[in-house]
Design brief:
single chain, 227 residues, alpha+beta, Beta-Lactamase
Length: 227
C-alpha cells in the first residue's frame, strides 16, 4: 500500500482486513504481533514502492510471572516490565526479539526515558490507566505518538547509533490498554518524513490492531510462542 497517498478509508480497510484475517489464526500473542509488524514493515511503501519504515516494533507490559521463557541474565527486579514481543526491520538482528540488543526487556523505571515517557503521554497511557479511563480521555482513534523531526529530537536519544546512520526522519506510534491490566505499544521508525496529517492517518490502525491484540490477551492463549 502506498501509504503516503492512501486515503483514511484505505488505511481503515487495511486494518479491518488485518483484524478479520487474524482474529483466531495464531496460537500466541507473540505470533500475532510478529505477523503485524512484518506486514506493516513490508506493506507500507512510498510512491516509489520503497519501504517507509526502517523498523517496526510492538511492546507489551508484562508482570514478573510472564517474562520471556528464555530468561535474561542480570535483569534487575521490577514489578512490571515493558517487553519487546515483535520486531521487523532492515537489519537481520532487528527481525527477532532474541537478537535485538538493549530493548528486549525494560523495567518499569525505564518508562520514564524520553521517548517512552513522551509516547505514553501522547497516546494517553500510564501504569495506573484503566481501559475505561483511556476511552473517556480520547478514545482509541485519537491517541497516537508522533515525532515529526527525529534528527536531533530530545525524545529519540540514539541519534548517532540509529537515527542518523539509518536516515530516520519521523516516528509514529499507537497503543491501548487491555481489560486485564496490561497494554501494548506499536512504534514505527520511518525514513520518510511523516507529518501530523499522515500520523493521524496511521492512527486509524489503532482501533483494529488494539481489538485484535485484546482478543489474544483476554483468551487463554499464551503470551510467548513455544520453542
Amino acid at each position: 500500500m502506498q501509504f503516503i497517498q492512501a486515503t483514511e478509508q484505505e488505511v481503515t480497510q487495511y486494518a479491518r482486513t488485518l483484524f478479520a484475517d487474524n482474529i483466531d489464526k495464531w496460537k500466541s500473542f507473540e505470533e500475532v504481533t510478529d505477523f503485524i509488524v512484518n506486514q506493516i514493515y513490508k506493506d507500507f511503501v512510498n510512491e516509489s514502492d520503497q519501504k517507509i519504515f526502517e523498523l517496526v516494533r510492538i511492546f507489551r507490559m508484562v508482570q514478573s510471572d510472564n517474562l520471556p521463557p528464555e530468561g535474561l541474565e542480570d535483569v534487575p527486579e521490577s514489578p512490571e516490565w515493558l517487553a519487546l514481543v515483535a520486531t521487523a526491520g532492515r537489519e537481520d538482528a532487528w527481525n527477532s526479539r532474541l537478537t535485538s540488543a538493549g530493548h528486549r526487556l525494560l523495567p518499569s523505571a525505564a518508562f520514564t526515558t524520553p521517548m517512552l515517557k513522551a509516547a505514553f503521554e501522547q497516546i494517553g497511557l500510564n501504569q495506573e490507566h484503566t481501559t475505561e479511563d483511556f476511552m473517556k480521555s480520547a478514545g482509541l482513534m485519537a491517541n497516537f505518538f508522533h515525532v515529526e523531526h527525529a534528527p536531533d529530537s530530545p525524545y529519540i536519544v540514539a541519534q548517532d547509533e540509529f537515527v542518523k546512520p539509518y536516515g530516520i526522519k519521523s516516528v509514529v506510534g499507537i497503543g491501548s490498554p487491555f481489560i486485564g491490566g496490561s497494554m501494548y505499544m506499536l512504534l514505527g521508525f520511518a525514513s520518510t518524513k511523516l507529518d501530523k496529517e499522515i500520523a493521524e492517518k496511521f492512527s486509524n490502525l489503532a482501533l483494529f490492531i488494539g481489538t485484535l491484540l485484546s482478543n489474544y490477551e483476554e483468551s487463554e492463549r499464551p503470551i510467548w510462542k513455544s520453542a
